[in-house]
Protein 1
Amino acid sequence: MATASTSTSSTSISDALSTRCACVREGDTVLLRLPSKQEKLVKLTSNATVGLGKFGKFPASELVGKPYGVTYEILDKEGGRLQAMSHQAVAEMEDAKNTNQHIEDDAGSIALLGTAQIEALKQSGAAGRDIIAQQIAQHSQFQLKNEFSKDKYLKRKEAKFLKHVTPLPPTSHNMTAHHFHKLPAKIRELRPDSMSQLLSLANVRPGGKYIVVEDCAGLVVGAVLERLGDEGKILAIHDADSPPAFDVLAAMNFPPALVTSLVSTLNWSNMAEDYTPPPLPLSAKDGGTNFRSTHERDKIRRRRELFETLERARAELHQGEFDGLILASQYEPYSIVDALHKYLAGSASIVAYSPFAHVLTEAQNKLRATNYVLHPSITESWMREYQVLPGRTHPMMNMSGSGGFLLHAIRIFDDPTAHAVTASKKRRLDEPAPAPEKPSGSENGAAPVAAPAGGEPEAAAVGVAEPERVAAEASELEKEGEGGERMES
C-alpha cells in the first residue's frame, strides 16, 4: 500500500509540474503584462476581480483554464469577458516618398482630439481601436509621416488606449526579469542572464544535491528547483529565526508537495555538529498522551514536527556529498565557503554572485591560498538587448550597465603524496642507467668484439646514454618544470 501511495503522489506531482507553465489554474499567482509593457503579479482567488487601473478589470474566473502567452482583450461591454486576440504578422516596410521633412514641430498647429473629446468617447463605451482611429483621422499631419513613424505612433496609442492583458508563465526567467525591473534590490540586482550563468556554472541538473545560501526572497531556490524537476535535493541555509517566507518561490506555483519533499531549510546556528536543541517538552507531562487541553496537544505536536524536520535537515547536511554550493547573499562569500566546503563532494562547483566586484575579488585572493578549491575565477555578466524588426534591427538605446559578477571554483581534495608529472620525469632521469648486459658469446669462450679504430669497443656504447645527452635532457626538463610552476602560480 505504501508503494502504491508513493507512486500516486509522484504521478500527481509530475502532472502538476507539466501544467504549471501550460495553463492558468485557480489559486495561482499570475504575472500579467499590460499594454504599457509593465507587469503585475496577481493572486487568482475564487469570486475575485482583477483590477488593472485604466486598462480595465475582469473576473479572475475568466483567466482560469486559459493558456499562458496568449493576449486577451478585455471586453468592458460584456462584463470584463476575455477574448483571445489574433497575432499580427510583422510586415516589411518600404517607404521612399515621405521623409518627415514637411512635418511642423509646433504642436499648436496640429489638430488633435482634445481631452474632453477622448473622455466623452470613453464614457460612450467606444472601444480603444475606435478612439485610435478617430485620433488618426483628426491628426492633420499623420499622412506626412513615413511608415516607420506611423508604426511608432500607433504603438504609443495602443499602449495608452487598448485594454488587453497577457499572462506570462511563472518561469525563473520571467520572475527574475519582473523583479529586476520593478524592485532590483529585492533580488540583489540579479539579472536574467546572470541567473542563467549562475545555474550553468553550478551544473544544476535533475537528481543533484545543492546547498543554497541566498537573500533573494527564494528566487535562486526556485530557479534551482525548476531545473531539478521532481528529483534532487536543495538545502537552503538562512539566518532567520523562523523558516524564511520565500515569497518569490511561492509565486512560481510549484506543487506544495514538491517543495516540501525537495527543499529543506536550516539556520546557521543549528548546523553545528555539537548543536544541542533546547530542553522543551515533546510529550505530555506524564510522558504519555494525557494532555491537559487541546491547545497543549497541538502545541506539542507542532513542536515535535519542527524538531523532526530540523533533525532531518541536519542529517542531510552532515551526510555531505553535495554537488554544488550556490551563493547570492549579502554576507562575505569566503566565510560561507570556508564553513560549508567540507560538505561538498569532489569536483563540486562553488558559485558566488555579487553585484560588487571587490567583494568577490577579496574572496578569490583568499581561496587561492587554500588547498580545497581549484581555479577560482571571476566573470562579469554582459548583455545587450536588440530590437529585431524588418528593416529596424538595432541595439536598444537604454540598457542596464552591469548584471553583476560571478565567482566560480571547483572543490578538490588535497593529497600530500601527489607529485607533478615533470618532477616524476626528472626523478627517473636522475637515477643511474642500468649496466649493459654481457654478450652471450663471452660466456662460451668466444672472442670479444673487436674494437673500432677509435680505440673504444662498440659494446661499451650499447644501452649506455652519452653523458652530454643526459645532461641536455635534464636541463630541458628543468626548464619545462620551472615554466609549468610559473604558470600554475
Protein 2
Amino acid sequence: MVVTTTVSDSDEHVRSTFASRYVRDALPKFKMPEHSIPKEAAYQIISDELMLDGNPRLNLASFVTTWMEPECDKLMMAAINKNYVDMDEYPVTTELQNRCVNMIAHLFNAPMGDDETAIGVGTVGSSEAIMLAGLAMKRKWQKKRQSEGKPHDKPNIVTGANVQVCWEKFARYFEVELKEVKLKEDYYVMDPAKAVEMVDENTICVAAILGSTLTGEFEDVKLLNDLLTKKNKETGWDTPIHVDAASGGFIAPFLYPNLKWDFRLPLVKSINVSGHKYGLVYAGVGWVVWRSKEELPEELIFHINYLGSDQPTFTLNFSKGSSQIIAQYYQLIRLGFEGYKNIMQNCMANARALREEIKKTGRFNILSKEDGVPLVAFSLKDSSRFTVFDVAEDLRRFGWIVPAYTMPPDAERVAVLRVVVREDFSRGLAERLAHDIERVAKELDGRPSRGAIEAAHVTAAAAAEGSGSDKRVKKSVEETQREITSYWKGLVAGRRTGAC
C-alpha cells in the first residue's frame, strides 16, 4: 500500500528554501502580504537581494566608518534593544554618553576644569547636531534683538558654497536665510574675508567647515575669528562662529595639535563632529558641544518625567538606539589618544601614497591639499575623449565606488573624482585602485568619444538628407559637446556629496 502525505505551508520550514514556492513568488513591493512565510525563507530572499548592494569597504564615496573590531560589534549587538531615551531605565548608558561629551569637549579645548561636566549631547549624526547648534544660535540672537527692541524676524547665516546639504536643510526648515560665499577655481573653501563682508546685524553665526566635503581642506577658522572680532568691535555686534567639524574634528587634534580652530578661539561657541566618520563608529552617531551653558538657551531644553524621573532632553527626535553611543565610548577608551593618532597617521600616509600613484599616470590634476581630511580629489587634465563620470562608471566593474561631481558655484566648470581614505583602506588597496584607474583610462582612450559617436549619427543622418550636410555636421558636433556637458551638470545640480 502506498502512503502519501501532503506537506502543508506550515511544514515548509523544514524544506530547502530554494525548493519551496517562496523563491518563485513575486516579492511584495507595495502591500504587506496576506500570509506569513518561514523565517529561513525570509532571511534567504532578503540576503539574496542585498548581494546586489555595493561592498561598503570599497565605497570610497563615503566618510562613514565601515569596519569595527569584533569586540565592539558584540557590545553593539548586546545593546541593540536599548532605547537610549529611557535614561532612568538605562542609567549606565546615559553615563557613557556624558563621558563621551566630556572627552570630546576636552579634545576641542573647551574652557572647563578637568572634572567639570561639559555641555553637549549625542545625536543621530552631524545633521541633527547642526540643527541643534543652529537653533541655539538663532534663539540667542532673537532674545538679544527682542531685548533691544529690534526686529528679529529675518535671521541669516553665512557659510561657504561648499557646505554639506544639512546646512541648506537647517536654513529651509527653520526659516533662516542662507548667505553663501561663492567658490572659485583653485579655491574651493570659504574665503574668510568675503564671509565677514557678508555679515550683518541679522547674522546669527558664521559657519566654518573643518574638512570640506569636496576636497577635504580645512577652512581658516583662526583668520575668520580675527576678522570677525574686528568687525564686531567696529559694529557693536557679537556675531559668533560655529565650526562644522563633522569630518575633521577627530583628525585635527591628533595630526595638527597646534592648529587653532576650536574653543581656543573666543568666537567659537559650538562645534559638531561625526562619531560615525573619523570617530570610527558605524553610521548613526554625531556630537555637538557648546563652549559653556550660556550658549545653550534654557528654554530649548525639555524636561520629562514620565519615564521615571526628571530628564532634560535637547534633541530633534526622541527614541534612538544606544549601540552607537556605547561603541563611541568603546573606541575612546580602547584607542585613547595614541590609538587615534596612529590611525589618522596611517590614513594620511595611505592618502599621500594614492595621490602619488595618481600623479604618476600624468592624466590628472590633484585638487585636494596635503593637509586636511585624508582624501584625494582629482580632475582630468584632458576631458576631450572621456570625462570623470566615465571613469567613475567604469571603476564599478572592479567593485570600486568612486564619486564624480561638479563643484558648487562659481566653480561649476570643474568636475572631479574623490577617494576618501578611511581606517580600513590599506596601502595595498590604494595601489590596486591606482592600477585600476590607469587601466580604465587606457580602455577609455581606445573607445570613440561620446562626441564622436554622436557626430557619426549626425553624419549618417546628414548624408541621407543630401545637401547642406557638412554645415549641419559641424554644428551638431559642437551642440553635442554642449549637450554632454549640460547633461552631467544637470545630473549633479543641487547635489551635495558625503554623509553627516
